[in-house]
Amino acid sequence: MQDIFVKDISAYQGQEVRLKGWVRNIRSSGKLIFIIFRDGTGTIQAVAFKPDLDEATFEDAKRLTLESSLIITGISKQHPKNPNEYELNITGIQTIQISEDYPITKKEHGPDFLLSNRHLWLRSPKQWAIMRIRHKVYLAICEYLHENNFFRFDSPILTPNACEGTTTLFELEYFDVGKAYLSQSGQLYLETGIMSLGRVYDFGPVFRAERSKTRKHLTEFWMMDAEAAFVEHDENMQIQEDLIRHVIRSVLSECDSELDILERDKGALKAADAPFKRMTHFEAIEYLRAKGSDIDHSSDLGAQDETLITEESQVPIFIEKWPKEIKAFYMKRDPNNEDYVLGSDLIAPEGFGEIIGGSQREDDHDLLLSRMKAEKMDIEAYQWYLDLRKYGSVPHSGFGIGLERLVTWMSGIHHIRETIPYPRMIYRIYP
Ligand code: 4AD
Ligand code: MG
Fold this sequence. Notes:
nine-stranded mixed β-sheet, binds magnesium ion, 13 helices, 2 domains, binds 4-amino-1,4-dioxobutan-2-aminium adenosine-5'-monophosphate, alpha+beta, single chain
C-alpha cells in the first residue's frame, strides 16, 4: 500500500492509501466516527463506518483523543458536493500514542496561556498557516535576490561593536577579550561583502534589547539585510519595491488556503501589488500636521503616525530623506541638503507599520569619520569599516527587512509574536 501525504490525496481517488499523523478533532454519532486528521501537509476528514470495519478497529477509532498520533489506512473519496475536498473511508487504524488531556481545546484561551503552551499551540490551524506563510515569504525573498545577482554572505552574530546604536545592545563576556554584543543587523559586514561580490545579502537572527512592549517588537527577530555596490538611493528603493511585490505575488499564488484559514483580506494584498508611493520625511510631517497632529519636523515617526500616513493608501509608502539627527551614522547625507540623509523607511498599509529600513551609505572617508566622532563612537573598533572608504570606495546602498513584520502584514494578524516559532519578548523567554 502507498504511503502518502494529505496534500497529495487527490491523485489517489478510489485507492487505498496510508497516512501518518495526528487527530486534530474527533466526534462520533452512532455507527460513524469522524476524525479530522492532519499530517503537517494538510487536513482531511477520515470516516470510520462501523459496518465496514471489524470490531477492534472501530473500538480503536473510538478510543482516539485530541492530538493522538496514528497511522491510518483508507480509501480516498472525492467529496460529493465539493470536488476540491477529499475524504478518507477508514479501513484500518494503528494507534501510535493516545494523547491524554490535551490542554488546548476548542474553548477560548488567553494569549498568555497559549504563549506558555507555544510548543503545542504551533499545531493549531492558524499557527500552522502562519508558519507556512513565513516559509513562503522566506523562500520568495531568497528567490528574488538569487535572480537579481545577490550572493548570500552570512554575517556574524557575535560582534565587537554596534550597528544600530548602543541603546539596544545585548552584551556578553567574550573570554579574555572583554565585551561582545549580539548583532542588531549584519549591514556593516555586508558592506565589506559587496567589495568582493558586488551584491550580497544575509538572513538570520538579530537582537535588540528594546524595552518596547508593543505588538510590533521582538527582542530576537530575523532580518534579511541586502547590500549592493554602485546602487544609489532611488535604485535602492526600486529594488525594495520589486522585492516586496514579488513576495506579495508569491504569497497570493502559493498560500491561498493559508490566507483563507487566517481570513486574510486578499483584496488588500492584491491592491498592494502596484507602484509604491514616496514621500519625504518633511512631506510626511506636513501631511500629519494637516491631519491635526502636532508633530514637529525633527521627530521620528511613531506607530500611530505610520498608521495615519498610510491610512488612505492601498500600497506601501517610502518615507525618505530623514533629518540626520534621528538616523544612523552610516547614512549618506543628501547632497542637496546637508541636514538630511538618503535613508528610507518602507511603511506597509493597513496599519502594519515599518517593514524595511534602508539607505545609501556614506562612502566618503572623512565625512563618515567626522560623523562618527560627533556621535562619540569608538573609532578604533570601527577601523575595518572605515577602511572600506579608503580602498576603492564606491557609492552603495542597502536595506534590511524584518521578516516577522512582513509575515505579520502578509498574514493580516494583529501581533508579531505569532509569526516566529518561539517569540522572545521582554517578559517572555519560555518555552
Ligand atoms: O530599521 P532597522 O533598524 O534597520 C537596520 O537595522 C539596518 N541596518 C538595515 C539595513 O540597512 N541593512 O531594522 C530593519 C527592519 C525594520 O524595518 C523592521 O522591519 C525590523 O527590522 N525590526 C524589527 N522587527 C521586530 N522587532 C523589532 N524589535 C524590530 N526592530 C526592527
Ligand atoms: Mg528602522
